[in-house]
Amino acid sequence: MNYFTILLFFFCNCILAQSFDNSISRTNIKANFSTEVLEAYEENSFSKVKDFYQFLEIYSDVNSSEALKNQVKETIFYLYKNNSQVTDFFGSEKITLEKLLENSKAKGLKFEVKNIQKEATSNNFWTNSYTLKINDGKEIQQKKIYQKVYFYPEEKSFGSKKKEVWTILLGDF
N or C end of the chain: smaller count of CB under 10 Å? Predict the structure, then answer.
């Protein structure tokens, strides 16, 4: 009886471990994509970073209408993973994306992204680094930014069909 119980215990553990391993490999970037394909997605993330700063520049423009700012704000949130924490441009503490937008509103900020590159890849994200120049009209700040970029499978509906697609979202910096 003890032998049967031990055998059953090991069998259950093997099944659970295999199922856990399958769920990890399903979302593991390196397990699902070749180096060339992954590099193409990384290039796409560089564009998303640049797009974010272009949208933020429009959002912070004193001449932008409230309707435009609302549309741009919605687009910015679409680029980011929920609950991302970002570093305040005007301080060093971590804040929400909402707070960053509030702090940037109507300040006439200009942004320039330089030397963007991928630093490291993890299971479900990679880290981009870049130099960010922020011009508020009075002074120019330059910061080195390290930003997570999340890449994971997500089930999407296309009419009555469902398909798993991989999504790129910007994350913490």
Answer: N
DSSP 65: -
| CA dist., res. 106 & res. 59, Å (int) | 7
- Distance, in Å, from the CA atom of 69 to the CA atom of 66, rounded to the nearest integer, reads 5
pLDDT-based confidence at residue 13 (cuts at 50, 70, 90): low
The answer on pLDDT for 117 being more than 50 is: yes
Contacts 24+ apart (CB under 8 A), 129-134: 130/49, 132/53, 134/89, 134/109, 134/110
Task: Identify residue 138 by its one-letter amino acid code.
Answer: K
Residue 27 pLDDT: 60
Amino acid in position 73: K
Residue 55 CB: number of other CB atoms within 10 A?
20
